[in-house]
């Protein structure tokens, strides 16, 4: 398999173990320069060393940062200002009856599971659009579609991830496409049988698409 990822830089959040580690390892195998992330310096170093051992010639580095906080995200993007591929894998879960889920629990789950990916995507998306190449992925869960009664807070955050991936990011890209359409519309020569009002109307319609969220 050749995904043509040579010279591409990939950041995988929460990648010291589990799905995140597997994704980081396979991206390294495909030739991407991979950044492993976790909260612990020790676990990040172990994951980096394991990938280097298992994947010959792997280009992999590690950045310890708690991405469940704004400060942690700022620390990471300072050290990794540019990526081509962002895999938002970081997530936590905890079985708990709904009546016992506190405000602090809700806020913690949203900070880690939703805002970590939202903040990173908001930072990296503009540069991807500028380069006209980039990939942003959210590792969600079936729980985002069928919310488990034993951990409603987890399921709700997974639904939010799906909404971000399906709506917020594509609409950002669509707005860039809309600007291109406006430029093309403005450069179209006026047809001999079209009035000035017709031309103006067409340009206004292009300028209004997509509608504001």
Describe, in plain words, how this protein is organized in 3D.
With 213 residues, this protein is of the alpha/beta class. The chain has a single domain, classed as NAD(P)-binding Rossmann-like Domain (Rossmann fold), CATH 3.40.50. It contains 6 helices and 5 strands; from the N terminus they run βαβαβαβαβαα. A 5-stranded parallel sheet has the order 3-2-1-4-5, sandwiched between helices. α2 links the parallel β2 and β3. α5 packs antiparallel against α6. The longest helix has 36 residues. It starts with 8 loop residues before the first strand and ends in a 6-residue tail after the last helix. The C terminus is likely disordered.
Summarize the structure.
The chain is of the alpha/beta class and 213 residues long. The chain has six helices and five strands; from the N terminus they run E-H-E-H-E-H-E-H-E-H-H.
Helix fraction by DSSP (H/I, runs of at least 4): 40-55%
CATH topology: Rossmann fold
Give the domain tally: 1
Taking Cα atoms only, what radius of gyration do you get, to the nearest Å?
21 Å
Shape: globular
Q: Give the tally of β-strands.
A: 5
Strand order of the largest sheet: 3-2-1-4-5
Supply the CATH superfamily name. Answer: NAD(P)-binding Rossmann-like Domain
């Amino acid at each position: 398999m050749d995904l043509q990822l040579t010279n591409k830089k990939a950041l995988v959040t929460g990648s010291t173990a589990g799905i995140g580690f597997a994704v980081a390892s396979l991206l390294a195998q495909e030739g991407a320069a991979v950044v492993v992330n976790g909260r612990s310096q020790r676990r990040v170093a172990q994951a980096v060393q394991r990938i280097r051992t298992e994947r010959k010639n792997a280009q992999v580095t590690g950045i310890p940062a708690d991405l469940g906080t704004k400060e942690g995200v700022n620390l990471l993007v300072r050290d990794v200002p540019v990526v081509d591929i962002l895999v938002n894998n970081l997530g936590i879960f905890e079985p708990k009856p709904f009546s016992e889920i506190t405000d602090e629990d809700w806020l913690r789950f949203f900070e880690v599971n939703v805002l970590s990916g939202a903040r990173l995507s908001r930072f990296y998306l503009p540069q991807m659009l500028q380069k006209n190449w980039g990939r942003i992925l959210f590792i969600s869960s079936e729980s985002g579609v069928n919310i488990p009664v034993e951990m409603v807070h987890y399921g709700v955050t997974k639904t939010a991830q799906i909404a971000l991936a399906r709506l917020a990011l594509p609409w950002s890209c669509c707005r860039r496409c809309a600007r291109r359409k406006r430029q093309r519309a403005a450069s179209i020569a006026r047809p001999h049988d079209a009035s000035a009002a017709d031309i103006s109307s067409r340009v206004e319609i292009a300028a209004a698409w997509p509608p504001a969220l």
